[in-house]
Each structure stands twice: as C-alpha cells, then as structure tokens.
Amino acid sequence: MINNSVIILSLVVLCNYCISGKTTCSRKPVEEWSPQPSSYVVNWTLTENICMNFYKDCWDFSINPKMGTSDDHIVPQICPLQIQVGDVLVISSEPSLQPPEINVMNVSEASFIDCVQNTTPEDQLLFGCRLKGKHTVNSQWLSAGTHYFITVVASGPSLCQLGLRLNVTVKQQFCQESLSSEFCSGHGKCLSKVWDKTYRCHCQPPFSGKYCQELDACSSKPCKNNGSCINYGGKWNKQGYECICHPPFTGSDCSEVIGQCEPNICFHGNCSNITAHSFICECDEHFSGK
Ligand SMILES: *[C@@H]1O[C@H](CO)[C@@H](O)[C@H](O)[C@H]1NC(C)=O
Ligand SMILES: *[C@@H]1O[C@H](CO)[C@@H](O)[C@H](O)[C@H]1NC(C)=O
Ligand SMILES: *[C@@H]1O[C@H](CO)[C@@H](O)[C@H](O)[C@H]1NC(C)=O
Ligand SMILES: *[C@@H]1O[C@H](CO)[C@@H](O)[C@H](O)[C@H]1NC(C)=O
Ligand SMILES: *[C@@H]1O[C@H](CO)[C@@H](O)[C@H](O)[C@H]1NC(C)=O
Ligand SMILES: *[C@@H]1O[C@H](CO)[C@@H](O)[C@H](O)[C@H]1NC(C)=O
C-alpha cells in the first residue's frame, strides 16, 4: 500500500507526464498461430496504454479466473505484449520524452518490478543510441520466453516507476511435425491461451496426438453387439481399428453370428438384423419366403 501511495504521489508531482493513458489492456483469451509474422508498434509514452493493476488492468483477470486474488498488485506498465517468435517489435518514442537521455534496457523479472537499472551492464541496452523516433528491437532480445524491458534515464524522475516498462512474452509453436508439414496435420488448430507459454494443437475429433496425426477410429463406435474396439490409428488396416467380439458374434464389426448367415443361407437376398438367436433374410426383388 505504501508503494501504491508513493506511486500515486509521484504521478501527481510529475504531472507533465500525466497518466491520461491509464487503461485496461484488451486481449483475446485464445490466439491462433499466424503463419505470417506480424509487426507491433509500442508507443513508449505515458499518455496511452499504461495499465496499473496487474490482475485487473494489465491482464484482464475476468478471462483468467484461475489467477483469482483480491490483492491489489500495482505495477504501472505499458500493456504487456504477447507475440510470436519471428514477429517484429518497434518501439516508438514520443517527442515529449526527448529531453532526458532515455534508453531501454533488458532486465530480469525482479528488476522489472523494482525498476532497478544500475546493476545491469551496458550491453543490456536495447538501442545503440538514446530513444528518438522509431526503433526496431533486434531479434536477439525476442527469443522464445518472457522478456522485461525498462526505461533507463541519465537523470530525473524514474519513468520506469511511472509505467514506462514492458513485459514481452514471445511464444513458439509446436504444431508442425516438420517444417514443411501442415499445421496440426490439417486436423486441428494451433492455439495458445493467454497463460500458455507456447502454441499447441487442439485437434478436431476423431483426431488426436501432438500434431493431430492420430486417428481414433473407434470414436464412431464401429463394433456392434457390445464388441470392444481397439484403435490402431490407421496403422492396422484401412479401417484403423479391430473389433473384439463377444460370442456368438463375429465378423469385422461383430454383426455376424457364428454359424448363422452362412453363405447363401438366404437364397436370393441378404442376411440381416442378426441377434444371438435370430436373423432375417432381406429378399431380392421378385423373391420371397423366409
Ligand atoms: C501509437 O501512436 C500513434 C500515433 O501517435 C497512434 O496512431 C497509434 O494508434 C498508437 N498505437 C497504440 C498501440 O496505441
Ligand atoms: C536479458 O536479461 C535477462 C535477465 O537479466 C538475461 O537472463 C538475458 O540473458 C538477457 N538477454 C540478453 C539477450 O542478453
Ligand atoms: C509477464 O507476462 C507473463 C505472461 O505473458 C506473465 O506470466 C508474467 O507474470 C508477467 N510478469 C510480470 C512481472 O508482470
Ligand atoms: C458389454 O460389455 C461389457 C464389458 O465388456 C459388460 O460390462 C456389459 O455388461 C456388456 N453390455 C451388454 C449390453 O452386453
Ligand atoms: C431390423 O431391425 C431394426 C431395429 O432393430 C428395425 O427397425 C428394422 O425394421 C428391422 N428390419 C427388418 C427388415 O425387419
Ligand atoms: C444385398 O446386398 C447387396 C450388396 O451389399 C446389395 O446390392 C443388395 O441391394 C442387397 N439386397 C437387399 C434386398 O437388401
């Protein structure tokens, strides 16, 4: 709470950078992998897109009920970003931020929360010169995983404490068996929920497996008369399953009865509606009789 009031006080004092941009970050609960890389521009400014409360504003907590907590957890920051490996991130500074010499630094999670900058070496600065205009973030800073970027200033107010810091989570996909294969074998979607660390296949039944490459041939319940179905996922035979029948049933789908429906028992017709003790002959046209 003390932290909270200190921050609020600093906000009032430093009202030339006022948080008119306080916001609730919008995001989709589930994202589908995009085969084409996207480009994101983050405005490095306090006038828009700054969220305050970790649970309520930064991560729309209503779509993450598992994260349930009533605690306020105030970490003013630019709306956290979730992107894909290979996406392009551009940081765009605002003219009013020009006077102080500012740069952006890669830090650990703890340093992100506390806005500690002095212990981290020079080589953690994202840009070779101070922030001015648009800068593309080199891909070395955007490997798969979560990255924390804070504002460093030569002197003056801690712009980081006020919210000029960014949490970027870069996600990989595990939806292709090989680089050339179809996503989820064409039988599912490559998805990631907000708190997932990666994209994975969500298969359409009857397909399953890491890449939706397996077929559950038993899902259509092909074995009649309470026979058990063994799924071979297409590897066994064309059907992909085998029926284990209870006597007296037999046949590939347990619809035949041992001894009944012997070849030609129905002279001109088909044997059907088989149960343990009966069957009927479906007669061909022009024929009749049992
Ligand atoms: C960033 O600023 C530009 C111009 O100032 C604006 O058009 C754009 O919508 C802003 N982007 C975001 C993500 O707020
Ligand atoms: C960014 O900072 C983290 C935490 O200090 C560190 O583990 C990581 O190696 C840094 N990334 C690069 C590319 O130096
Ligand atoms: C950063 O974002 C990730 C999700 O992308 C989240 O799990 C993590 O808690 C966030 N870290 C902080 C310090 O806000
Ligand atoms: C079907 O088979 C299961 C076990 O294989 C058995 O428990 C069940 O009673 C059988 N149901 C019928 C209708 O025969
Ligand atoms: C075969 O059985 C089904 C259901 O048990 C019944 O609806 C159908 O009429 C029967 N067919 C004949 C030809 O009796
Ligand atoms: C008997 O089965 C054959 C082949 O499945 C089919 O062509 C024919 O129409 C059937 N006859 C009757 C009476 O259902």
Helix content: under 10%
CATH topology of the domain at 27-61 and 72-172: Immunoglobulin-like
The helix/strand series, from N terminus to C terminus, equals HEEEHEEEEHEEHEEEEEEEEEEE
Indicate the low-confidence ranges by residue numbers: 1-19
Number of helices: 4
**Tally of strands:** 20
What ions, cofactors and ligands are bound?
Answer: 2-acetamido-2-deoxy-beta-D-glucopyranose
State the CATH architecture of the domain at 27-61 and 72-172: Sandwich
Computed CA radius of gyration, to the nearest angstrom: 32 Å
Given this structure, which CATH class of the domain at 27-61 and 72-172 is correct?
Answer: Mainly Beta
What is the structural class? mainly beta
The gross shape turns out to be rod-shaped
The H-level CATH homologous superfamily of the domain at 27-61 and 72-172, spelled out, is Cupredoxins -  blue copper proteins
Q: Name the average pLDDT.
A: 82
Beta content comes to: 25-35%
Topology:
Elements: H1 2-13, E1 30-32, E2 39-44, E3 50-53, H2 54-58, E4 74-78, E5 81-84, E6 88-93, E7 102-107, H3 109-114, E8 134-136, E9 145-153, H4 159-162, E10 165-174, E11 188-193, E12 198-203, E13 207-208, E14 214-215, E15 228-231, E16 241-244, E17 249-250, E18 256-257, E19 269-272, E20 280-283
Parallel strand pairs: 2-6, 5-10, 10-12
Antiparallel strand pairs: 1-11, 3-4, 6-8, 7-9, 9-10, 11-12, 13-14, 15-16, 17-18, 19-20
Bound molecules: 2-acetamido-2-deoxy-beta-D-glucopyranose (6 copies).
In brief:
The chain is mainly beta. The chain contains 4 helices and 20 strands.
